[in-house]
Amino acid sequence: MVEQRAGRGDEQHVVDRLRAAGCVFSEDEARLLVEAATGGEREAMVRRRVAGEPLEQVLGWASFDGLRVPVVPGVFVPRRRTELLVDVADALLGGTGAGAPVRPVVVELCCGVAAVSAALLHRRPGLDLVAADLDPAAVARARLTLGDRASVLEGDLFRPLPPRLLGRVDVLVANAPYVPTSVIATMPPEARLHESVLALDGGADGLDLHRRIAGEARAWLAPGGSLLVETSEAQADATEALLAAAGLVTRVHRDDDRDATVVVGRAEARVG
User: Fold this and answer.
1) pLDDT of residue 11
2) Quick one: pLDDT at residue 96?
3) Which of 149, 180, 193, 257 is deepest in the core (most CB within 10 A)?
């Protein structure tokens, strides 16, 4: 009983420090930090969090779709809203009848630490999956996350993809940066000070990467394959228009609970 009371006291002390630093979910964060370490190691972690470093980078992992996805300082932290990309992709991969691919081909662009890929492989271990990102730190972490279950390539969007994937991708997912450049300075410090600008900056209107992805995706998609792009609710119409202009049949998925928006563009099956 003495040890239990001391443990609760330690946790409350952490709660108080986090609350004073402005952490909204101080009780939940304190519990995770107390569980993660003791003594000097815990103190160092608490200090990092109080100084404004994202909790996930302090802990070394982010909770995503029921998984603990490893993260390190400086990389983009997976957001809960991006779980909608996983849900929509999983639904599109759901077919098992005649004509369904024996081993569906999935590509994740701008993969970061490959949270989406990890979640999809957890749900569907048999995928032929390739992930790619421009940030070397993110690529290194993604390779550790996925191991030998997938290929993780370093490079700009489609450039590192192997030619074997041309016209064969069943689902192409992208959580590409979509924050307008001028808005980055107004983002919470956790993002603008502790995450790579490569993972945030979407250009003047936030849609630079969406334009490039939409412009090249059709050549990589299999007949009936789909491109899925995370965007904001305010940018959804513009992102959808880009996919439609590329010749894809579009629809928008919205989840208000997660404040999540995904635009889907499907490549119609070729005739003849």
Assistant:
1) 87
2) 46
3) 180
- pLDDT for 151 equals 97
- Give dist(CA 49, CA 136) in Å, integer: 25
Reduced 3-state DSSP string for 184-214: HHHCCHHHHCCECHHHCECCCCCCHHHHHHH
User: Tokens 């956790």 — which residue?
Assistant: 190
How far is residue 38 CA from its own chain's centroid? 30
> Length of the chain in residues, anyone?
272
For residue 195, give Cα distances in angstroms to 64, 80, 96, 101, 198.
17, 16, 39, 37, 8
The region that residue 22 occupies, defined by phi over 0 for left and psi between -120 and 50 for alpha, beta otherwise, is: left
Query: How far apart, in whole angstroms, are the C-alpha atoms of residue 136 and residue 221?
Result: 26
Strands 151-154 and 105-109 turn out to be: unpaired
Q: Which residues of the chain have pLDDT under 50?
A: 1-6, 96-98, 271-272
